[in-house]
Structures are given as structure tokens and as C-alpha cells.
């Protein structure tokens, strides 16, 4: 079982396992629980404590957790931040007409002053124009 950080490309081993299954993380991402087959073709649950990176463990074998069990699931309520990027909290966007043929009017306003970069691409993905400003953009452009 491998863990990966998709932002950095780092990969590490969480556990060596002989069973295809669905590992599940604890609420604080400190542990992972997973199924494993026994020599007598039974099933047990194992638990592995994760490193600070959350993509590997110190004990790749895992520790026996519950005998004669399968499909471990950690139930909890909580919130998880998936990226380090702040979301735009208040965004007003107006684009008219849409679709456009020869003239485009765009209005973009943020309630908090942030740097804005707007790129306009054609239907083939070719970059047509780039606009940069802080807090708001008012653009009327013709092709």
C-alpha cells in the first residue's frame, strides 16, 4: 500500500499487504486501518501509524488490530483542508455576451483586495490575452 503527495510527487510505503482492499485513515490522519489475509485464509484488520508526512509508516507490516474482521471504516465528522490555496471568498463575475463573437464585456470584483490574473483562451486553447490587476477588473475588448 503506497501513499503519495500529489503536490510534491513524493511516494512512500504505508504497508506491505497481501490483500486488495480499501484502507481508511483516522480523522487526524495519524493511522490507517486495512484488511489482510491470514495463512488459514481468514481476514484480520491491521493498523499502521503514519509518519508526519502522512504518506508512509515506520512499521510496513502494520500491527494486528482486530482478528477475524474485514472492511475497516473510520467514521467521524470533520473538515479537511485539501490544498494550501486560499479560496476566493467573495467573487462577482459578469461575462456578456456569452458566447461572444467580436466583443466581450467582463466585470470581475473581489470583496477583498487580491492580485487577479485573467487569461482569455479561444476554443482551441490558444492564449488570446492576459489581464492583471488588484481587487477588480473591468474589461471591454474586441477581436
Protein model, in words:
The protein has a 4-stranded antiparallel sheet with strand order 3-4-5-6, with no helix packed on it. It has a 3-stranded antiparallel sheet with strand order 7-8-11, with no helix packed on it. The chain has strands spanning 2-4, 11-13, 24-25, 31-37, 43-49, 63-66, 91-96, 103-110, 115-121, 127-134, 136-142. The protein has 143 residues and is mostly beta strands. The protein has no helices and 11 strands. The chain has 2 domains: 2-66, no CATH class; 91-142, no CATH class.
Quick summary of this structure?
This protein has strands at 2-4, 11-13, 24-25, 31-37, 43-49, 63-66, 91-96, 103-110, 115-121, 127-134, 136-142. By secondary structure, it is an all-beta fold. The protein is elongated and about 75 Å long.
Strand and helix map with partners:
Blueprint: E1 2-4, E2 11-13, E3 24-25, E4 31-37, E5 43-49, E6 63-66, E7 91-96, E8 103-110, E9 115-121, E10 127-134, E11 136-142
Antiparallel strand pairs: 1-2, 3-4, 4-5, 5-6, 7-8, 8-11, 9-10
Amino acid at each position: 500500500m503506497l501513499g503519495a503527495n500529489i503536490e510534491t510527487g513524493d511516494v512512500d510505503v504505508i504497508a506491505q499487504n497481501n490483500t486488495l482492499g480499501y484502507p481508511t485513515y483516522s480523522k487526524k490522519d495519524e493511522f490507517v486501518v486495512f484488511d489482510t489475509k491470514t495463512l488459514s485464509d481468514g481476514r484480520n484488520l491491521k493498523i499502521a501509524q503514519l509518519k508526519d508526512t502522512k504518506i508512509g509508516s515506520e512499521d510496513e507490516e502494520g500491527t494486528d488490530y482486530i482478528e477475524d474482521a474485514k472492511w475497516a471504516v473510520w467514521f467521524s465528522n470533520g473538515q479537511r483542508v485539501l490544498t494550501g490555496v486560499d479560496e476566493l471568498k467573495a467573487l462577482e463575475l459578469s461575462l456578456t455576451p456569452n458566447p461572444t463573437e467580436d466583443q466581450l464585456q467582463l466585470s470581475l470584483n473581489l470583496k477583498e483586495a487580491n492580485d487577479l490574473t485573467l487569461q482569455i483562451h479561444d476554443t482551441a486553447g490558444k492564449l488570446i490575452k492576459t489581464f492583471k490587476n488588484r481587487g477588480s477588473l473591468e474589461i471591454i475588448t474586441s477581436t
